[in-house]
């Protein structure tokens, strides 16, 4: 195992995060605060509870995952796209690194950043609402699992992308709408049919509900299905990345 | 200088057809053996396949066929050990603009699996006149300094083999001289150097052996002296005052030719020969009363040489 190599990539990526740390952290803090002002105060004041949880607290897991999804994809995709763009990818490709080691370095760093941002949002949310976490270990595990999964997805997108605009396509046009429609700000149970059934085809529903269960012990869907969907997506991303390294697709000539 | 440090057997690269674009053969099967501790120049015009070849060896391009052995390690099956032995200085100035010189060179050492060694990195940066700039961000450096940074990055993990892809591209005279000095000093320390170039002069100045590549084919590999004698053809053109219909028998020993409808008398000679034959040729021309108004000598262009070589091998 080339531990020095993994550590080199990890440190390099974290240094990139460090150069923009204030922007990276301030943006989620401001965004979360705005969501609380709009959804928590304006709408929440008109809603008492959702599934037995105060509305302000109810939206926190969804808010955290909303940021985790986009930050994970953005950080991981930029991490591998930038060397491709600047040409420094030659050094990564010619280094004695296995695909696993390369992914550990890039995705490990991106996951760390996403988890930090998730925790910042969690801390910010505490300023607005009382927020108990019923299963803290499960919450931490789920947070890391989802962050790592979306970082793997972002890593693959970074290799797929041929330009900066393509880096934005999936997070902006696919993931964010799916998150908004995936019960980030509401319970699937309050939707009328057929939308309730349609929504259950959105995989993000299972991610948000799984994470919400770790906070409040309640969920619109079974926890097992949430974990299975998250695990399934993780495996799909791993399979995609494994295929990329095996074939050299958009990585090697 | 014993044994082969790098062996290529049947290494080829073909790009599959894409849409309306037909498939292309970037590199026809190459067999090549590089001796430990030598400086080997891969000489060829732009687009000849030089960068493709070294990119395959370094793991950047996937070969379509063939096997590569680096320092006794198969480049596919034992790629980590093989890559650890190689350092690459690319042709393009591809750098991380926001990183400092020290950080980026230290990064390269760790990337190749070596533990940090501040003393070695300091010496390396001093050797390349980069120590004073160690805290400067790469974006603040000149092109020449960036080239030095790339060399430092390639040497950071103390490789056995150093690839220099077109090291003279965009480099001023001072840096070129420094680089050649550095390359020789690396060779003296046992590092094998493989450089690509399209300058005959560079190959002549630096290399122990030279390989000529054109249109994806490695045409020949030879000792520098032997090859330079072959490639070092020059021409002497005499622009005649009166056109000539035929070569006088008295000039037959020099095998001159008539060009441009008899207006130019051309004598081809070898620049590396101790006796070029020019003085005797001119003396005989004068004795024969052949008048000329201009005299010009020219080196065969690399393109001409390649055309000749391709013609010979076809």
Automatic annotation (TrEMBL), chain A:
GO cellular component: ATP-binding cassette (ABC) transporter complex
Every ABC transmembrane type-2 domain range: 19-248
Topological relation to the membrane, as annotated: Multi-pass membrane protein
Superkingdom to which the source organism belongs: Bacteria
GO molecular function, one term: ABC-type transporter activity
PROSITE patterns cross-referenced by the UniProt entry: ABC_TM2 (PS51012)
Swiss-Prot/TrEMBL keywords: Cell membrane, Membrane, Transmembrane, Transmembrane helix, Transport
Transmembrane segments: 21-43, 55-82, 103-125, 137-160, 172-191, 221-245
Localization per record: Cell inner membrane; Membrane
Family label: Belongs to the ABC-2 integral membrane protein family.
Protein name: Transport permease protein
Organism from which the protein derives: Sphingomonas metalli
TrEMBL record, chain B:
UniProt domain ABC transporter: residue ranges: 6-240
GO molecular function: ATP binding; ATP hydrolysis activity
The keyword Transcription appears for this protein: no
Domain of life: Bacteria
Pfam families for the chain: ABC_tran
Keyword set, alphabetical order: ATP-binding, Nucleotide-binding, Transport
SMART domains reported for this sequence: AAA (SM00382)
Protein name: ABC transporter ATP-binding protein
